[in-house]
Amino acid sequence: xxxxxxxxxxxxxxxxxxxALKHAKEAKxxxxxxxxxxxxxxxxxxxxxxxxxxxxxxxxLFSDPKVHAVYICTPHPYHCELALxxxxxxxxxxxxxxxxxxxxxxVQIINAAKDNNVFLMxxxxxxxxxxxxxxxxxxxxxxxxxxxxxxxxxxxxxxxxGPESRVWNNELGGGALLDIGGYPLSLARLVAGAARGLxxxxxxxxxxxxxxxxxxxxxxxxxxxxxxxxxxxxxxFTGIFADxxxxxxxxxxxxTVRLSSPWRPDVPEMGKPTIVLTKSGEEPxxxxxxxxxxxxxxxxxxxxxxxxxxxxxxxxRFMTWEDSIGQVKAMDEWRRQIGLKYNAD
Length: 345
Ligand SMILES: NC(=O)C1=CN([C@@H]2O[C@H](COP(=O)(O)OP(=O)(O)OC[C@H]3O[C@@H](n4cnc5c(N)ncnc54)[C@H](OP(=O)(O)O)[C@@H]3O)[C@@H](O)[C@H]2O)C=CC1
Ligand SMILES: O=C1OC[C@@H](O)[C@H](O)[C@H]1O
Description:
By secondary structure, the chain is α/β, with parallel strands linked by helices. Helices cover 32% and strands 23% of the residues.
């Protein structure tokens, strides 16, 4: 049995996911939906999709009986409406991050998945990567003692993208936090949870500051969070104005663990992925055998989701619905504090 996938949108990440599907077990790309027949056919030609399954509208993709699961990878503000359409059509859903613009939308999407008995995951793909599993093992096995502080960053230089590009455009959900800031936030929530033997933990408090661009999206923003009755702190940074460290570090009572490339360990341009474990008073140990280097991170995600669907599960064990709700609530609060608003609010 394989899961037949359809893709909605033909942009940057649609191509990465389509390429990964070629290598994923239990998964096959069978259809694509675009806003135009021309781009659907262009995409379909690249990935071997027959022309009758290259759809000129998203609606047509959702009506395609050959499709079991849909990967929604349009700009963020369209995720909610499309996820609701997909659930209603009985399709299993992998919705790119952020799944929703705000908590209200996230609740609507999850309710639609429940009502229509379909699988749904918010596409934080790094959660499915063996490197992330290894990090959680290090934490939960107590190899660095009690977790005290989590530091994580994700930034890139998007200054050469035009003001109309989705990352600088408020109407398209632009800005650092929604595009990439969700990764450090979700890692902090993951690690704070692992420290207590839980799949995730929500912060008790969050204090943020940031700078909005002339186009009214966040150029950079930083936040301090506290978890577990102030036993664990987190410092998170994200920005789209400059290339900077994209790393994560967890400091414990008996050592530290540092990931050199936590988000895209499969992309050499983001640096050689290592986990460096330093126990107090000992030499650092570098762990590199946690992953098949070079395998696209989307292969892990596509296989994880396909297997869950084939097993009749509705949620992904690495990113549950409750986790997505905790994530969007924290994002909403973070945005409130820096005055970042979108049409969906
Ligand atoms: N997990 C990950 O590593 C990544 C996730 N993402 C997420 O995926 C989503 C898409 O990002 P990305 O692929 O970079 O975006 P792109 O702009 O490259 O592509 C988005 C696609 O969505 C469709 N679309 C529908 N409405 C619009 C619109 N008004 N303006 C522009 N495009 C529209 C278009 O496809 P068509 O014309 O065929 O309909 C377009 O090609 C985002 O939510 C982002 O957060 C992005 C990059 C990495
Ligand atoms: O999720 C993402 O990760 C990689 C970034 O380049 C991209 O803009 C973002 O959407």
